[in-house]
Write a structure and sequence with these properties.
With about 325 residues, the chain is α+β, with helices and mostly antiparallel strands. About 50% of the residues lie in helices and about 15% in strands.
């Protein structure tokens, strides 16, 4: 009975190892698939989950996990082979001792047979029992565990479920984006800006949201941009019939730390009525920086006309790359 109890614990250990190998292998494989299909980065969803600088670390992490899975699977296979070989060797020795006692009994005469049998019982049998007990004690200490516990895999299964959900969204053509309430919360209330002086128009220059955000905080940078003509592509959030916020998002690590990059677009005339919140807009105009009322801060502004504001196709990502 004690030997069978130990065997049950050994089976739970190997089952535990196989489940761990399988779960980790699935996680590594799905991560590699998401990397290959670009699910975690710009290109598949409007609001990707990770910043582009993590593209290589994700690939290396998936490959490392798969390598560990292969190494552990081979080690477990070798361990099982050694265990079977040890079990076969133990069974062979036990069978040999039994046959030796039996043949000795047949070789002696009847009277000596009884004596020989008595001798084998008093000397050999306790030695056999002792060896069996000792072996059991050693194996029990080495192979003792607490049984198979599926709840241990919740930590591994959770990312598997989330990754499977992303794959489902991708293959069903569904979009992954922020809710309107989340966007409004990030943008906050539109701040009032002071009227500015007219500035001579200069040449057109390439423009980015993050560049204007940095320039707004530095007087020397503001002078370099002010008066030039620039063009930006982002999402539309109305304020009045003549101005709106054009924005994109910036992330440092992942989608949860996104912050808005905002530029105020001010039109000389009322804007078209077919614009809706969340539309992708391309706006071009003269770059200025207007002081925010009640603050010692400046906001980047594009002065334009209705002709300089038009709907456009969606960007590859809401995040500025």
């Amino acid at each position: 009975m004690a030997h069978e109890h130990h065997h049950h614990h050994g089976e739970s250990y190997y089952l535990d190892q196989l489940c761990t190998i399988g779960a980790c292998g699935l996680l590594g494989g799905i991560t590699l698939l998401m990397w290959k299909t670009d699910l975690l980065f710009a290109g598949k969803f409007e609001t990707p989950l990770l910043a582009p600088q993590f593209r290589i670390p994700v690939l290396l992490g998936a490959l490392a996990l798969l390598i560990v899975v292969v190494v552990r699977a081979v080690a477990l296979w070798v361990q099982v082979g050694k265990r079977k070989a040890a079990a076969n060797a133990h069974g062979h020795v036990h069978s040999h001792d039994h046959e030796h006692d039996h043949e000795h009994c047949e070789h002696e005469h009847h009277e000596h047979c009884e004596h020989g049998h008595h001798h084998a019982h008093s000397h050999d049998h306790p030695v056999h029992d002792h060896a069996h007990d000792h072996s059991h004690h050693h194996d029990h200490d080495h192979g003792h565990d607490h049984g198979f516990a599926p709840w241990r895999y919740a930590v591994i299964l959770l990312p598997l479920l989330l990754a499977s959900l992303l794959l489902y969204y991708h293959y069903q053509g569904l979009e992954l984006t922020y809710s309107k309430d989340r966007i409004l919360g990030m943008l906050g209330k539109a701040e009032e800006i002071e009227a500015g002086e007219s500035v001579a128009t200069k040449s057109e220059i390439p423009l980015r949201f993050d560049e204007l955000a940095v320039a707004a905080a530095l007087p020397s940078k503001r002078k370099n941009y002010e008066g030039h003509v620039g063009k930006l592509k982002g999402k539309y959030q109305p304020i009045t019939d003549r101005d709106f916020t054009l924005f994109r998002l910036k992330i440092t690590c992942c989608a949860s730390d996104a912050i808005p990059l905002k530029v105020r677009i001010v039109s000389s005339e009322p804007l078209p009525q077919d614009l809706a919140p969340g539309d992708w807009i391309e706006a071009s105009g003269q770059i200025q920086f207007r002081k925010i009322v009640g603050k010692d801060e400046y906001m980047p502004v594009l002065l334009t006309s209705p002709a300089g504001v038009k709907k456009t196709t969606a960007g590859t990502s809401l995040y500025e790359q």
